[in-house]
């Protein structure tokens, strides 16, 4: 592969410019990206309803209503659960100071010495309250972005037939049309697989926590379901809140058992099943899935992690059809 010096420099310059633009304009770009992917996710259902000769405006209203109901119920559940947890913080604060000496003694009997002052300061319940308060302060911007996203989804749904005609006009050859269809199918397949593994994760976590009679078991199961959409580390992050509550509510043996359970779930689903299925079906290497999550997370924040794989698929498909940048598609691919 012969790539001259000027070509290499210009390529890296373009990459830096694009990343800088995405980083600075993330607040505006993110709602557009979310609306675009929501549109793609529900596109098969839209076409199915249209096949029954249902007018496009009725179909759009049905899909839009489904999206709004899902988001509304999820938002209400999260806010209600968060408020319940906040109310119980004083109780956990007292338990925290009683349990910490027992935790230290438990680890010291196995000659495990840790920086306890640092750990205690990090998981202090009072600090958790501050984190939650900060989260709610940012809810205003989240709601604004959500309303903008939903509005754009509605307009995209109304324009479904026009978008299809524009795609046919822009794709002059059958090969180009196949590439566009591959893109839409890849995105839909990704979210279908991710939803399946997320539901599986949530159900296993709920069953495990219910077995130990842990408070907020269903809340933590929903958290595991949501965070599993973030590749590689989502399920790992979801394990911290239930382990913290378990440490205050249950015995150390039960807490360690729950930790082992989460570890098994993360290894089987998060680190084995999920990446293997994604890499095989989407043509991305497991390593690239993880790296894309880190990069897009840095550029666009938590939602960037959620959209990391679909965005990387777009780059791969674009580069696959480019004479100059085909090598990028080769690097992203899971094929040797």
Taking the sheet with the most strands, its summary is:
none
Q: Per DSSP, what share of the residues sits in E-state strands of 2 or more residues?
A: under 5%
Residue share in helix: over 70%
Order of helices and strands: HHHHHHHHHHHHHHHHHH
* Computed structural class: mainly alpha
Mean pLDDT: 77
Tell me the radius of gyration. 23 Å
Shape: globular
Task: State the end-to-end CA separation.
Answer: 16 Å
**How many β-strand runs?**
0
Spans where pLDDT lies below 50 across 5 or more residues:
none
Q: Report the total helices.
A: 18
What distinguishing features does this structure have?
336 residues, mainly alpha, globular
What does the model show?
The structure is a single chain. Helix content is 84%, strand content 0%. It has 336 residues and is mainly α. The chain has a domain at 172-336. Helix 10 packs antiparallel against helix 11 (217-227) and helix 10 packs antiparallel against helix 14 (252-282). The longest helix is centred in the middle third of the chain and has 38 residues, at 174-211. It is globular and about 70 Å long. It starts with a helix and ends with a helix.
In short:
The chain is mostly helical.
Secondary-structure blueprint of this entry?
Layout: H1 5-24, H2 26-41, H3 43-50, H4 56-87, H5 89-108, H6 116-122, H7 125-137, H8 139-158, H9 160-170, H10 174-211, H11 217-227, H12 234-238, H13 240-249, H14 252-282, H15 286-300, H16 302-306, H17 308-320, H18 326-332
Helix pairs in contact: 2-8, 3-4, 4-8, 5-13, 10-11, 10-14, 10-17, 15-17, 17-18
């Amino acid at each position: 592969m012969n790539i001259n010096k000027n070509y290499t420099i210009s390529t890296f310059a373009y990459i830096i410019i694009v990343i800088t633009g995405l980083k600075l304009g993330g607040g505006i770009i993110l709602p557009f990206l979310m609306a675009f992917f929501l549109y793609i996710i529900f596109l098969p259902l839209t076409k199915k309803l249209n096949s029954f000769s249902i007018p496009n405006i009725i179909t759009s209203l049905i899909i839009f209503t489904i999206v709004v109901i899902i988001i509304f119920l999820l938002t209400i559940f999260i806010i209600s659960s968060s408020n319940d947890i906040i109310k119980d913080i004083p109780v956990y604060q007292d338990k925290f100071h009683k349990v910490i000496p027992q935790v230290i003694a438990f680890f010291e009997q196995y000659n495990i010495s840790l920086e306890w002052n640092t750990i205690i300061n990090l998981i202090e319940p009072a600090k958790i309250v501050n984190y939650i308060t900060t989260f709610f302060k940012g809810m205003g911007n989240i709601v604004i972005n959500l309303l903008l996203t939903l509005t754009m989804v509605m307009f995209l749904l109304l324009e479904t037939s026009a978008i299809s005609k524009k795609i046919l006009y822009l794709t002059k050859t059958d090969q180009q049309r196949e590439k566009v269809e591959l893109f839409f199918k890849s995105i839909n397949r990704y979210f279908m697989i991710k939803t399946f593994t997320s539901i599986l994760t949530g159900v296993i976590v709920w069953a495990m926590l219910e077995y130990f009679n842990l408070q907020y078991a269903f809340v933590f199961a929903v958290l595991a379901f949501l965070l599993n959409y973030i590749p590689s580390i989502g399920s790992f992050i979801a394990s911290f809140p239930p382990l913290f509550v378990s440490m205050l509510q249950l015995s150390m043996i039960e807490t360690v058992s729950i930790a082992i359970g989460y570890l098994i779930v993360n290894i089987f689903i998060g680190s084995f099943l999920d990446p293997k299925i994604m890499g095989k079906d989407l043509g991305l290497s497991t390593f690239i899935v993880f790296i894309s999550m880190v990069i897009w997370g840095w550029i666009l924040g938590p939602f960037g992690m959620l959209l990391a794989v679909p965005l990387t698929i777009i780059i791969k498909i674009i580069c696959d059809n480019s004479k100059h940048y085909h090598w990028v598609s080769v690097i992203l691919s899971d094929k040797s």
